[in-house]
Design brief:
5 strands; five-stranded mixed β-sheet; alpha/beta; 5 helices; Rossmann fold; ARL15
Length: about 150
């Protein structure tokens, strides 16, 4: 009956949850990105020391994102937090110096080759596209995936 359909249907099924690790160098914008996705304020963002976990809700799923700090003192421990991940978000600053981009590329390649991550989906996010020095998508792709960086002439 119509009444039974309206009142007794029960709660909707839970949205699937996926565990994702978010990595990148300090200042690449990981914390700001996750704060925006969670509709939180992005004023007064401070670098993540250690790690933080945010549940990022989407219409059809929830991403439990483990953000790992990007400082040199923390990067060496990243792999301890990879277990159980179902995907990877690598955030890089598209307006960073060539030197920092080289470091980011090295970290990206280490992550792509890590046994716990190498079979997972990767999202490489070129952040800070609003900055004047931001590189194009083609440049970021070339810089991040090539085995050697092109040197500007």
């Amino acid at each position: 009956s119509c009444f039974k359909t309206l009142c007794c249907k029960g709660p909707p099924p839970p949205r699937p949850e996926y565990d994702v690790v978010c990595i990148g160098l300090t200042g690449s914008g990981k914390t700001s990105l996750l704060s925006r996705l969670c509709s939180e304020a992005t004023d007064n963002i401070i670098p993540t020391t250690g790690f933080s976990i945010k549940a990022v809700p989407f219409q059809n799923a929830i991403l439990n994102v483990k953000e790992l700090g990007g400082a040199d003192s923390i990067k060496k421990y990243w792999s301890r937090y990879y277990q159980g991940s179902q995907g990877v978000v690598f955030v890089l600053d598209s307006a960073s110096s060539e030197e920092d981009l080289e470091v980011a590329r090295t970290e990206l390649h280490l992550a792509l080759q890590h046994p716990q991550l190498c079979t997972l989906p990767f999202l490489i996010l070129a952040n800070h596209q609003d900055k004047p020095a931001a590189r194009s998508v083609q440049e970021v792709t070339q810089y991040s995936l090539n085995t050697s960086l092109p040197h500007p002439s």
